[in-house]
Design brief:
single chain; Rossmann fold; globular
Length: about 325
Amino acid sequence: MASNTTTPAEEAVSQRSSNSDSRAALFERLVPMLRCLRCKGDVAVHPSGLQCRKCSSVFPITNGVLRFVESQGYAGNFGFEWGKYARTQLDGEISNLSERQFIESTGFSPAELQGKWVLDIGCGMGRFADVASRWGANVVGIDLSLAADVAARNLCSRDNVWICQASVLNLPFLEQSFDYIYSIGVLHHTPDCEQSFKCLPKLLKPGGSIAIWLYSAYVRWYRMSDVYRKLTTKLSPKSLHALCVAIDPLYYIHRGLRWIPGIGSVLSGALSYAVPMNMNPSREWRLLDTFDWYSPVYQSKHTYEEVFRWFEDCGLR
């Protein structure tokens, strides 16, 4: 009796009947760009996902995500964060904040990305992959955490997006595979930001462009939060989230202080310095960004001179 079951690889490229052919075509174009993490050999489609032609290592596809790691490692809190706020930062009918931040952080334009291969390093729940894919790019998003599953759910209806769970320090791509690479607010959460950045330029095609956004070493606001982070990074994700909820009413105190004539802005600034937190009018967005600030194990800050040197070291201008 014939079976009508499908393999993970087949299911991943057939999630929606309306776009299955296009997703299958994208997958077929993506496979030659991938390599085995263990022996650097070519990979081919396998019933479970992909398999190395040389050493036979298998890289599974589950929940629409191509897996190149077995653990979230230091990025576990990000999986909790994006699982709880799966769609908070996606642009909708009343907001294009993510698109505006994408433009400000990368300098890329829709005309540049149209039809190009784009790599999103640290895609999270797919916030900026959403923007790039709406602009017509072929987007490959990678994330070390289980946020990759959230990104796949958010963007699985797109025929120009693929999500991989992988580490920036061991990426599964052939050199010179991408026209554009970006990483917005992610590399400073790796154990060594410079080392992580220097894994990327070799993946650019000749004439390609790379853009990164990092925390600045010049901001005084960070000083007090660094003191608190010695405690908050030791809390469980649930406990830290509860703490973020507990301090959220300070947002309304900030707003009230600003109305005090003469000294309102000073008082509000002092409170902001004493208890740094996000000030977005959206409560969900505030909680997400405040949690995002206090949860990562690694959080480095950098100067312009330092980052420019990285680019120069890699032959980028």
